[in-house]
Amino acid sequence: MKIQSDLNKILLERQSQTINRNDSPDNDHRSFSEILNSTAAASQADPVQRTVPTELSGITGLTESQQAVLNLAEQSLDLLDHYGTMLEDPGLSAKDLEPVAEALASQSEDLRKLRDSLEDHDPLRDTADAIGIISAVEAAKINRGDYE
Fold this sequence. Notes:
By secondary structure, the protein is an all-alpha fold. 72% of the residues lie in helices and 0% in strands.
């Protein structure tokens, strides 16, 4: 029972410390809006700096084959991203997408060939497969006329 009474005593002390912390003289005479405004002004004085994402080419310790796969995979993802923004344009014709379909199909095939140069247990093989499949599927959709 002594443990229980000691525990209750500790909890009561912590609660009173929390209450006392909020009863400081600064808070007694300031309204909520004054506190909010002073906090907002302080946060505006120190703007958050934007971070720029790093490129994958900065990775060290890769073999030449791995670096080639990584570079082509990055190019393929950039092309897929560009293709996605093109699809948002309602005035785009199917003829405008033909060069993209050719590039996607070509990159998919090149990625497959480069993937075969990697070792069987290399985790980049799965990544290259996934990107190559997505590129090939999107090229097939364009050629089939899904976006007309």
